[in-house]
Specification:
By secondary structure, the chain is an alpha+beta fold. It folds into two domains: about 5-20 and about 30-215, Acetylcholine Binding Protein, Chain: A; about 220-395, Methane Monooxygenase Hydroxylase, Chain G, domain 1 (Up-down Bundle), CATH 1.20.58.390. Helix content is about 45%, strand content about 25%. It is built from seven helices and eleven strands. Strands 1, 2, 3, 4, 5, 6, 7, 8, 9, 10 and 11 form an eleven-stranded mixed sheet that branches. A hairpin with a 6-residue loop joins strand 1 and strand 2. Helix 4 (about 220-240) runs antiparallel to helix 5, helix 5 packs antiparallel against helix 6 and helix 6 runs antiparallel to helix 7 (about 330-395). The longest helix is centred in the last third of the chain and has 63 residues, at about 330-395. The structure holds 2-acetamido-2-deoxy-beta-D-glucopyranose (3 copies).
């Protein structure tokens, strides 16, 4: 007997929901006069940018908010225990078909409720994970900026039925970085937005496009790729000061080249596949070419150096042969004389030989120095061009 009054005394919340939804048709655009249009106010807050290094698709998680007025969801708070705002099931009421056009929405959770206040304003907030359409201009990698667009429109309704507008001012949306997780690879520059209408089949459709402008933080790549490369080049340049005739120089340069090859194999795995035709990759290839050039140059100079010594050796043997011939003479005095003469000859020969060798070494060193200067010039020119280019990109 006590349950009957309980039942009639439903909670105000329950009563309000029933009253609102009693004759509600969720398939009908909620306007009294069909000629009036429904304006959907949209808003966007960017939370994070995740990019997949391999495919270079940029995924963002955003907070998407849309607000519109439902003329049938209006009540007087006085009648319902002062309730000014309730949440309703989003399946039970009309929801605009505003979607993101260029991307497939990824793993966006379904939020089953919307908030409605007593003047009929419906707030539909939901988190979204979307894959952005970016130009992916990689030329300046790793100093690149990306301009990714995100366009919202009503898929079916023309602008005479559903119009779009920004909820906050365009500047407020553009500069809202409060929610952005700023410690990733990307830095958020701004999110300018624009509104326009597309004419299709005699009907106009409203669009709002957000351009997400982000810039890559190059530090990771500079520290991980550029600086080791530059160090190896510096070590290679310094190795020109190793003595030319000791033979260690070539061994040293070969080890540097080997080290660089290992380094290159490692970095190709780290770089995005779309970065293949960028100045950075060209930089690595040119570095390798320069290392090879310096190795070949050293080899040439060393070859020249030893080529000369080999030429000298046969003449030495001839001398020894001639000495042997002289030794065959029997007379003791003659033998002594000849011995002295040969000694003098050998000494002068030695002198000539060593002075010729010294001359040759000198010549080779001069050639070495000349080639080294030429090499240094090429390296400096190349490096300064590249650094200027990168500096202009990173400060642009
Ligand atoms: C609907 O609105 C239009 C223009 O605002 C008006 O001319 C028309 O009379 C209205 N229709 C009804 C049924 O109220
Ligand atoms: C309902 O919400 C809208 C926007 O959120 C606001 O402009 C309006 O004043 C609110 N109405 C009431 C009665 O609170
Ligand atoms: C971004 O791209 C859009 C076109 O998709 C263009 O209108 C806009 O000017 C670009 N913004 C910048 C800063 O390049």
């Amino acid at each position: 007997a006590e349950s009957v009054p309980e039942k009639s005394k439903r909670s105000a919340l329950n009563q309000l929901t029933r009253t609102l939804l009693r004759n509600y048709d969720c398939g009908v655009r909620p306007v009294h006069n069909w000629t009036s249009l429904t304006t959907v106010y949209i808003d966007l807050i960017l939370q994070s940018v995740l990019d997949d290094g391999k495919t270079q698709s940029i995924t963002t998680s955003i907070l998407y908010r849309q607000v519109w007025t439902d003329e049938f969801l209006v009540w007087d708070p006085e009648e319902f225990d002062g309730i000014n705002e309730i949440s309703l099931s989003s399946d039970a009421i009309w929801i605009p078909d505003v979607i993101v056009t260029e991307v497939n929405e990824g793993k966006s959770p379904q939020i089953p409720y919307v908030y409605v206040n007593s003047s009929g304003s419906v707030r539909n907030y939901r988190p979204m994970q979307v894959v952005l359409a970016c130009s992916l201009e990689m030329y300046a990698f790793p100093f690149d900026k990306q301009n990714c667009s995100l366009t919202f429109r009503s898929w079916l309704h023309s602008v005479t039925e559903i119009d779009l507008a920004l909820w906050r001012s365009a500047e407020a949306i553009a500069n809202d970085k409060r929610e952005f997780m700023n410690d990733g690879e990307w830095e958020l520059l701004s999110i300018p937005s624009s509104y326009w209408q597309i004419h299709q089949d005699d009907t106009d459709y409203a669009h709002i496009q957000f351009n997400v402008l982000i810039r890559r933080r190059p530090l990771l790549y500079v520290v991980g790729l550029l600086i080791p490369s530059i160090f190896l080049m510096l070590v290679d340049i310094t190795s020109f000061y190793l003595p030319l005739n000791s033979g260690t120089r070539i061994v040293f340069k070969v080890s540097i080249l080997l080290g660089y090859t290992v380094f290159r194999v490692n970095i190709t795995e780290e770089l995005p596949s779309t970065a293949v035709r960028t100045p950075l990759i060209v930089f690595f290839v040119v570095c390798m070419a320069l290392l090879m050039l310096s190795l070949i140059k050293s080899m040439l100079v060393v070859k020249l150096l030893y080529h000369n010594e080999k030429e000298l050796e046969p003449s030495l043997e001839e001398d020894l042969l001639s000495l042997n011939e002289i030794q065959d003479e029997p007379s003791r005095l003659d033998w002594l004389l000849q011995e002295l003469a040969s000694l003098r000859l050998a000494l002068s020969q030695d002198d000539k030989e060593s002075s010729a060798q010294a001359d040759w070494l000198d010549l080779c060193s001069k050639l070495d120095r000349f080639l080294f200067r030429f090499y240094l010039l090429v390296v400096v020119l190349y490096t300064s061009t590249l650094l200027l280019l990168w500096a202009s990109w990173s400060f642009a």
